[in-house]
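Chapter review. Work through the record for Medium-chain fatty acid-CoA ligase faa2 before attempting the end-of-chapter questions.
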Amino acid sequence: MALVDPATLLAVALAVVAATVYLYYYSSQANQPDIHPLQLAQQSSVASIRESPNESPVYRAKITPAGTPLLESPSSGLTTLTEAIRATRNAHRPDAVQYVVADKVVRVSSDELAARVSGLAAALLRISTPSSAVAILLPASPEFLVAYRACIDTGIVAIPIPVATPPASLHAILRHSNASVIVTSAELAMSLADFVKATSLTHLVVAGELDGSAPAEALRSATTVVALAELESGEAPEKDAVVAPADSAYVLYSLCDASATPRGVVITHANAMAAVAGLLSNLPASQAIAETDVFLSSASMANAANLNFINIALIHGCSICAHETTDAESFATYAYSFRPTFVYLEPLISRDLVQLFYSHIVKYPKLEYNIFMAGYRRVVDSLMRGMKPKWSFWDFTYFRHYRNVIGGNLRLMFVDGPSTPSKSIEWLRALHGARVIPLFGTDHTTAVVTAGAFYDYASAIDTHNVGAPLACNEIKIVDSDASVGLTANDKPYPRGAIAVRGPNVATRLWNSESPVELNDGWLELPLYGEILPNGTIDVIGTRQTVAKSSLSPSGHILVERLERALSASRAVTDLCVVVTDSASKYIGIVAHPRPMELFATAKSLKKEYKMKQIDDYPWCAEYIRAKLVEAAKANHYEWIADIPLENIKVKLVSEPFSVANNLAKTDGSNNRETAKKLINVLFK
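Structure tokens for Medium-chain fatty acid-CoA ligase faa2:
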């Protein structure tokens, strides 16, 4: 038997080594950046002249520099949501299917949906009064889409209300809105029985059937109850309603307590169209939304930001999947089935999605885990250098699998920028291969003001930011009140209150004679921001969460910014910082630790712990506190390390922050009142 030539063996060995090096390193990084770095070096068009020494220059999107009109509509021929959706209705694919998910999958064709909308639109014109509005209190369902579109189609003002709204707040909103009609489910209708007589509701349109219970009888005696299915089956309106850009499209009510007067922000058709135009203009032509796209809504369909994407999907004739959840496993189940192409993720679901996949990966055998993390670091390195990795060894063996778990088609993930941790954005970009675009806005700005650049893969990772101004508005920073001490002349970057101007800015409040306060068209938001060198914005806190403290060198703590710095630690998934008072030498932190982080640490230290009884294991709080101090020092909060450890109180909770355990609000923000109560127990 002849022996193999040594030279051949050497050649084969060198080829294997070269291929291994290529697969391990170069294949995911050897490409040129997806966009020239200079195009991302300055992401805003900046005015050359400051109007006042107490404010920054004006920042605009690059496509609408100073002297050019701000975008008002995605198409020059369409000025209202009504016109835009009608245009799609007249040109839609006959076989298009709207996939809408409630407790079970319900498939509704575009033709069926249009027929139901027409029937309900005609009925609403008959039973509602011209000066009133129609409240929509429905979970994710075909019925929500039908009711919302019927209002838009007829010019009736819609008041979408999240189903998680507490009864006291719901009562206050309905009383203040003077809505004459509410469209709701039979189950949710029962929550209205105690106060329906104190509202202006004349008609209760119910999806389903009321039973013979006492609350149902109370509803029947207080108002006219009619079945939604009956109204949907009626004849279409005789002619299309005439709607003007300045007409009200819908009203956004923020959650309020029973003692506060609700504030409903009026979003006109012009406001809504400008927001749609701004979001769409942020996408390159090759990534434009089309009728073949599928939108998956995991947030409430009444969510202010989510409504913008529902509008985009309706205007373009996209299929819509709606599954309202904060549970990542449930989200993944429906994403796997419907294979969406774009999605809006609320902070709670985005954080839970990261935790779901991370908790699976850390269960790998040690060698495989290390291999995975090596690949993950290579992908992140590519992203930070402006390249979205193409095919690589890790994509073939790992990342493609995780993309397929949520459908495999996602190309756009829109997330709430201020409340989504940088590590979560990094993880979603690296693991799922989608463009993760952070957004920022308030109800008064149709929920959008800024968005991350499509090709800026480092956005919100290396430096936390929420992107540059959209093409529908302009932004500037003005000096804050003296007690906070943020000024447009701060070094190295201007800091202060964020002011916004543009056609997406609402100027009216519902059922209020007081207009929104504007200064030469500028709306000053109750938020503090910082302008970074590349023209992007970082939201550094709200007026309500700036705390005076003798601990901080500046005399105050921007609580939300500190939370983001601490959240960089891989030891926690959720946390909330509590500063007790200005003279206190204590900082309180409520946190949910990563279960696998504690499991691995307990194993290495040979300690015992159980997550459900986390309070019984003091070493866990001590360990998490040390990790949070490390994160603070690494993220420019060195003074935290000077505080004695016993003065940093850490309260661990056994579950992630959620609305159910009252640690999070429906918008994904921390419930600080609950956190404060937990910390006060430690201070006693």
